[in-house]
Design a protein that fits this description.
Layout lengths: L1 E2 L2 E2 L2 E3 H8 L3 H10 L5 E2 L6 E4 H11 L4
Antiparallel strand pairs: 1-2, 3-5, 4-5
């Protein structure tokens, strides 16, 4: 998601799907279970993700090779 040439601090479900290579249903299940940091958008109830929180979450899940 880009806003005026800048990367938005928020990611959509589809962007997280592409980033993590998980299915949409898995992302929704993980968010519902609190397994991945997410935000509920006030207008329309859209599920969004803070880019910095997702980056940090990914870093905690990576294991050194």
């Amino acid at each position: 998601m880009e806003v005026e040439g800048k990367r938005s601090p928020l990611l959509t479900v589809d962007e997280v799907v592409l980033l993590l290579r998980y299915s949409r249903s898995r992302i929704y299940k993980m968010a519902r279970a609190g397994e991945i940091p997410s935000k509920q958008h006030v207008k329309g109830g859209k599920l969004l993700f803070d880019r910095a929180e997702i980056d940090e979450w990914i870093d905690t899940k990576l294991t050194p090779a």
